[in-house]
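Bit of a strange request maybe. I'm writing a small parser for structure token strings and I need a real example to test against, not something I typed by hand. Could someone generate the tokens for this chain?
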Amino acid sequence: MTTNDEAAARARAVIPGGVNSPVRAFGSVGGTPRSIVSARGATVQDIAGREYIDLVASWGPALLGHAHPEVVATVQDAATRGLSFGASTLAETELAELVIDRLDVDGIRGIDRLRLVSTGTEATMTAIRIARGATGRDVIIKFAGHYHGHSDGLLAESGSGVATLGLPGSAGVPADIAALTLVLPYNDRDAVRTAFAAHPGRIAAIITEAAGANAGVLAPEDGFNRFLVETAHANGALVIVDEVLTGFRVGAAGWWGLERAAGETWTPDLVTFGKVIGGGMPLAAIGGRTELMELLAPLGPVYQAGTLSGNPLAVAAGHATLRLADADVYARIDRASAAVSAALHDALDAEGVAHTISHAGSLFSVAFRDAPVRDYDDARAQDSWRYPPFFHAMLDAGISLPPSVFEAWFLTAAHDDDIIDRIVTALPDAARAAAAAQH
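Reply from user aminoacidic:
Good idea to test on real output. This should exercise your parser:
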């Protein structure tokens, strides 16, 4: 039987760093990444035959749990008819209709049109191109710690793998392109006002995660998203709300739906989706108002294309996942998330480990500090060295956590009471490992 060490060594011989996405390399936690061969429900199995309870959930898409039988059957059926056509399909339209319907909250539509792409990076890149095309302006505002994919203009202080690896951004990004992105502290209204005052008539859009989830969980302060929309519109700019992580993950209509249900009245100009919308397969999307979305070719002058956009297998997986994601699914995930996060707090508290747990719907993360986490600087100002021993104690107990303290924990509808009990049982030993850690 092949070991994880052998699999990792073989990968490093042909794949840069042995991984196809940097956080998978275990760079911030140390040790050997697990090579996964199968997943079902709330568990994954590695190449050495060991099973783990999974709190990564493919970084969000496995909303229903891994390999849900109805989703798998739907994809298998689609595969019998062909893997890719390079042409339009009725299934694309049906998925777009389903997404638009889910973003109708009390008669208020979040989007009118939807364009399918393959990755979240493509989605945010296209949304920015639309915003620039619509406004005739070039400058974009983003927030430190927010990750919007790895396109050139959005990597500065972008959280996620960049934060995990301790990078300021990325080599290979021309300075002239980077200069078109203003990076501001999250939840800071004064910084937003100052940016617009300093760059009159130059800012095309603000791009923001609906709720931050790439530097740990950083929820917006009450009214902050509404403030962004009002301020941008007052200055002739647009707002792009990135729901690649939160869309259909924290609720049927994503984070925007949660805020609408809480009485907020804002509506985004453009929204990006990924992760859950593809049900675990490569699929993402851009949605928005009709007049903005119809700037896209072939109707308008903003060009975007993709040979595999709307891939029929990915569309089938996404449609099946969203169709099955009913109110009961979200209620189960909310209950599981609340139980695990409460047990996490209790375990760390019992060992006297300074920590704060941040929530955004069912998403949560732990930061090893006493004070709340409001922005990216707060997220980085923690005893992050406590996380590797905590992580490995959980892994040794058969619980697979995100291999970075700067990531959200993901629960699924398959995390039942037995699974939760096993997680809760493992937490005290992990908390003791964090308490004993040496900097």
